[in-house]
Amino acid sequence: MPSCADIKVKPTSVLKLDETRKGKFVLDATNAVRRSFTARADVKVEGQTQSTWVSMDINRFEFGADKTQSIELTFTAPPDVPPGKYSFHVQIVDVGNPDEFYSNSDTLSVEVPAAVVKKTWMQQYWWVLVIVGGVVVIGGGVGAAIGMSGGGGLATIGKSCDNKECAEGLKCDDGQKLCLGEAKAACTEDSQCLSGNCEKDKNDKKVCAEALPGAACGGEDKSQCPKKQTCVATKDPKDGKNAKVCLGAVGFSPCKNDGDCVSDNCEGGTCGQPGPGTSCPKGNECPSNQSCVNVAGPTCLLKPGERCRTKIQCASGWCNQTTKQCTKADGSCASDADCPSTAACTQNRCLLPNGQKCANDGMCQSAICQDGSCAASPICRPPCPGRTVCQRNGACVLRPNMFDALGLQMLRENPSGVEKLRLESSTRIATPRAIQPP
Predict the structure, then answer these.
(1) Superfamily of domain 5-112
(2) 365 and which of 157, 266, 340, 351 could share a cystine (Cβ 3.0–4.6 Å)?
(3) What number of other Cβ atoms are within 10 A of residue 48's Cβ?
(4) Please, are residues 114 and 83 in contact by the beta-carbon 8 Å criterion?
(5) For every one of its 438 residues, what pLDDT tens digit does the chain have, with 9 covering 90 and above?
(6) For 118, what's the count of Cα atoms within 13 Å in the CB-facing half-sphere?
C-alpha cells in the first residue's frame, strides 16, 4: 500500500481533558508522493468513541507536492459520556485513487474525566434568601442576586451576554459576546443569527435559517457546518487566498451557482453530482448519473440520456449535438445525430464508411477493417439479405458484434481528451460567490 502522507501529531497523541471535557490535537501531514492531488481527511473511531465527538477544521484540501497541511481536531465529550479513555485515528486518502494511496495517523487517545455537575443558583446562594428574610424573601433575594450579576431579566437578541444568560432560542456567541438567534429564532437582520442568515419562512416571518454556502469554517467552534454542507478548502474569490468554507453537499438546496457546491455543480437550485472525469472509486461506484468505463484508466463518465457538452463526457463516447444528451452505450442509433461525426446510422447502428480509421470489422459499414481502415466489401450474388453482410470469402454472414459503442471505441483509440478531463477533475476546486466572515 503506497503511503500518500507522513502524519505527525502535536504535541502528543494522548490528551487529558480538564473539566470542560474538551481538547485539541494538531496533525501535520506532509505529501509523501511528490505530486499534487486532492486529499480527504476522515476520522476513524475506535471502541466506544463516536465520530460526532470529533471535528476537524478542514477535511478536504489540495495537497501540493512537498506541501505540509496542518489539521486541527477538536474532541468534545458530551455531558452524558462516562469518564474513561477513548481512541480514534485520522486517515488521509488521495480522492482520485483512495484504494491505493492512503495513510493513517497514530492512534489518538483522549482521557475524559467525570462530568462536573453544576449547582443551581438556589443551591449556591440559598443563604441570600435567609438573610434577606421578610414577606418578599424570594422576590427580594432573587432580585438582589440578579442585580449583583449584572441586571435583571434574560438578555435578548443582539444584547451582551457577558454577565447574563440568553433568552430561550438564543445562544451566546463567544467571539462577539452577544446573544444570537439559533435556528427558527425571530430576527430582523442577518447579524442577529448564529448562522448569519435571517430569511422569511413559509409563513412569511423572518427567522434565523441555516447558514448559506460560503460561511467560514474551521477553528474554535466553527468546524461544524450546517446539515448538507461540509467544510472544504477553497480559494477566496476576492484575493485568491486559501480559505476554508462550508459548501453544499449533493442534494443541498438552494444553491445559486456551481461555486456553492462541493461538487462544483448547481443544477436547478440543487447541488448535483460531481462532473464526469473522476477516477472510478472502490467498487466502481461512480455518481448515480455516471458509469465506470476504461478510457485512460477507469473513469466515471455520463450515462446515456444525461446532459452533456462534448463526447469525452459520455460513457458511450458521443454526445448528440442536437439533444445535448449522451447517446446509447450499446452503439444503437435512431439518426446520424446519435453517431460520431465521421459515422452514419446504418441499420440502427453507428458505423463508419469506407476510408475511415477502424480497429475491427464491427466498426465498419462494410464489416471489413483492412490495414486500419474500413474497406469495400466484395459483391455477393445474390445480395446478402437482412442484417447479414458480404465477407471476404464472398459468403453472407451476420454482421460482426460491436462489444462497445463506436464512440467509446474511438475514444479509446484517442484518449487524450479524456486524459485532460481527468486532470481537470482531479484539480477542480469549488469557488463560492463570496466568503461570509466568521
Answers:
(1) Immunoglobulins (2.60.40.10)
(2) 351
(3) 11
(4) yes
(5) 568 889 999 877 888 988 888 989 999 999 888 788 888 888 898 888 988 889 888 888 888 887 889 998 889 988 888 999 999 999 998 887 777 788 999 999 999 998 876 555 555 555 555 565 554 444 444 443 333 333 457 889 988 888 888 998 899 887 788 999 988 899 988 889 887 788 888 888 999 887 778 777 765 444 567 778 888 877 666 666 777 888 888 888 878 777 888 887 888 788 888 888 888 876 667 888 888 888 888 888 999 998 888 888 888 888 998 899 999 888 888 889 998 888 899 888 888 999 998 888 888 888 888 888 999 888 888 888 877 888 877 788 887 766 567 778 888 778 787 777 777 665 555 555 444 444
(6) 5
Residues sharing a CB contact under 8 Å with residue 371, sequence separation 6 or more, in sequence order:
none
Residue of 292, 330, 290, 295 whose CA lies nearest to 307? 290
- 56 - beta bridge partners? 73
Nine cell digits for residue 71: 489539521
**DSSP run (H or E) holding 141:** helix 137-148
Cα separation of 245 and 321, whole Å?
A: 37
Three-state secondary-structure class, residue 94? strand
- Domains of the chain, by residue range, sit at 5-112, 123-208, 229-271
Q: Which grid cell sits at 151?
A: 441586571
What is this structure's pTM? Answer: 0.45
Q: Report the C-alpha gap between 107 and 403 in whole angstroms.
A: 49
Nearest residue to 378 (alpha-carbon basis) of 388, 356, 393, 363: 393
Q: Can you tell me the distance from the alpha carbon of 151 to that of 174, in angstroms, rounded to the nearest whole number?
A: 20
